[in-house]
Amino acid sequence: MGPIEERIATKIEAAFAPERLAIINESHLHAGHAGGSPDGSGETHFRVRVVSPAFAAMSRIERHRALNDLLTAEIADGVHALALEPAAPGEKVRW
User: Fold this and answer.
1) Which stretches of the chain score pLDDT less than 50?
2) What is the pLDDT of residue 49?
3) Which residues pair with 82 in a beta bridge?
4) DSSP per position, 40-61
5) Which one of 18, 27, 30, 93 counts the least CB within 10 Å of its CB?
6) Of 17, 15, 19, which is closest to residue 65 (Cα–Cα)?
């Protein structure tokens, strides 16, 4: 786990107390693409899957906004893309 991935995990755990959290570094899938490193070895593209009771009262847009607001510093530090998959407990997920 790299330093940016660790920061993302720490922030989400503190803010949302998730029941499930998976942070997947997909940077290798974007090697040579805009915003990525030439060899895909960086921390530029992440998929964040999180199940938290905090999302129960939020719409899908509110969930995404809450995560994006929480991770503003990481985006400024070079995260080019975040694929967000937030859910409340009991909601159907694809993973």
Assistant:
1) none
2) 98
3) 46
4) S-SS-EEEEEEE-GGGTTS-HH
5) 93
6) 15
